[in-house]
């Protein structure tokens, strides 16, 4: 029963980073699951169920700390959910090697997007708005739709893309953007997890440890986000993401 005990501290570490940056823990969870012997589809399914608990815990944490823009979160969820469902069914059609290679490419693209959001020159934009109206978001609902589709296929995308969209394009304050995206990801993870559970593509023996870990990290991350600059965490997270992407692509080519 304790064979995968090491997934517990790993999950605390990943969830804490993900809550601070608004990114997806699945960027690190999926490669980790594959490394311990899971098929990519099971790795993605297990990542979804892990993120469901982690982001739900993080949402509770951000409700306590404040910052979730409810109207924004609702629009992003409504725009993204149908495409998450479409992407999740596409996952079942892809060969394991192709899915792993595509995941590696997707992680490097998301790392580039995260790095794009860094830098002092954007500080004024980050602190410009305390909230957004629905009317401001309507012309841009294709962004969460694309993010939703990528999330459906790979369990990643909704966090990083929506985060950079809200912060960089719409000028929402960093803390509010992160809090809102964490709430959005709780719902997107629910949609993805439901599909993979129905297909029997979740390794519960591993998920039992990662779920416990993300519940802790989900509470610690929002507290930490209030007390440090997120750019340094983003930079480290992006570096890890690029490394993961390279390794995933290399391993996938070896499987071909």
Topology:
Blueprint: H1 7-21, H2 26-35, H3 40-65, H4 70-91, H5 96-116, H6 123-126, H7 134-137, H8 142-154, H9 158-169, H10 174-198, H11 204-225, H12 230-255
Helix pairs in contact: 1-11, 1-12, 2-3, 3-10, 3-11, 4-8, 4-10, 5-12, 8-9, 9-10
Task: Outline the structure in words.
There is one protein chain. The chain is mainly α and 256 residues long. It has one domain. Helix content is 78%, strand content 0%. The chain has twelve helices and no strands. The protein is globular, with a radius of gyration of 17 Å. 54% of the residues are buried. The mean pLDDT is 85.
**Cα distance, first to last residue?**
34 Å
The number of domains: 1
Shape: globular
Which H/E pattern describes the elements? HHHHHHHHHHHH
Query: How many individual helices?
Result: 12
The gyration radius over C-alpha positions equals: 17 Å
Average pLDDT for all residues: 85
Helix and strand composition category? mainly alpha
Fraction of residues in helix: over 70%
Ranges with pLDDT <50 over ≥5 residues? none
The proportion of residues in beta strands is under 5%
Largest sheet: none
Structure summary, number of beta strands = 0
């Amino acid at each position: 029963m304790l064979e995968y005990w090491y997934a517990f501290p790993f999950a605390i570490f990943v969830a804490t980073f993900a809550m601070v940056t608004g990114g997806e823990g699945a960027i690190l969870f999926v490669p980790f699951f594959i490394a311990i012997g899971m098929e990519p589809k099971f790795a993605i399914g297990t990542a979804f169920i892990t993120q469901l608990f982690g982001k739900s815990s993080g949402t509770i944490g951000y409700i306590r700390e404040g910052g979730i823009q409810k109207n924004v979160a609702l629009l992003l969820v409504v725009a993204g959910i149908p495409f998450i469902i479409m992407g999740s069914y596409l996952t079942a059609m892809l060969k394991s090697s192709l899915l792993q290679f595509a995941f590696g490419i997707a992680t490097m693209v998301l790392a580039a997007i995260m790095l794009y959001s860094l830098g002092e020159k954007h500080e004024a934009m980050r602190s410009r708005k305390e909230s957004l109206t629905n009317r401001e978001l309507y012309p841009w609902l294709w962004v969460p739709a694309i993010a939703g589709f990528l999330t459906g296929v790979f369990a990643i995308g909704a966090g990083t893309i929506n985060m950079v969209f809200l912060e960089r394009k719409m000028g929402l304050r960093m803390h509010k953007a992160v809090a809102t995206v964490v709430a959005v990801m709780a719902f997107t993870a629910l949609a993805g997890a439901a599909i993979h559970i129905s297909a029997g593509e979740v390794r519960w023996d591993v998920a039992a440890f990662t779920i416990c870990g993300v519940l802790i990290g989900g509470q610690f991350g929002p507290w930490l986000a209030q007390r440090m600059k997120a750019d340094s965490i983003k930079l480290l997270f992006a570096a890890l993401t690029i490394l993961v992407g390279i390794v995933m692509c290399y391993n996938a080519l070896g499987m071909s």
